[in-house]
Design brief:
Layout: H1 14-22, H2 27-35, H3 41-47, H4 53-65, E1 69-74, E2 80-85, H5 87-90, H6 93-106
Antiparallel strand pairs: 1-2
Protein name: Transcriptional regulator
InterPro entries: HTH_HxlR, WH-like_DNA-bd_sf, WH_DNA-bd_sf
Organism: Aquirufa rosea
């Protein structure tokens, strides 16, 4: 899997580096949900109703490839897969927290949704 922007870091910009890891429409939400124990594929898919199965799969693979999350397969029948933040991934939580707080302060309406469990 090749990402379009993975190697795009003009002037070695730290902001671009960060956006290459957590940027995009879904990654911050996925990280937030995994941190609040909604860490199974079916639960993520159910909570982010607008995301397609393929997009969720790709985003999870990219986050895993970047060392942000780990995929744990439980040897059960049927197999159970969970995602957890790695220690490296936990270093992103202050950014996600700031995004959450900024969003809450600036949203025009108070919507109850999948992000309210912080």
């Amino acid at each position: 899997m090749v990402r379009k922007t993975k190697e795009f870091t003009p002037g070695n910009c730290p902001v671009v580096f960060c956006m290459n890891i957590i940027g995009g429409k879904w990654k911050p939400s996925i990280i937030h949900m995994i941190r609040t124990d909604r860490n199974r594929y079916s639960i993520l898919l159910k909570n982010i109703s607008e995301i397609s199965k393929q997009t969720l799969t790709n985003q999870l693979r990219e986050l895993e490839s970047d060392g942000i999350i780990e995929r744990i397969i439980f040897p059960e029948i049927p197999p159970r897969v969970e995602y957890n933040l790695t220690e490296y991934g936990k270093t992103i939580l202050p950014i996600i927290d700031s995004m959450y707080k900024w969003g809450r302060q600036n949203m025009k309406i108070d919507m109850k949704g999948y992000c309210d469990q912080i």
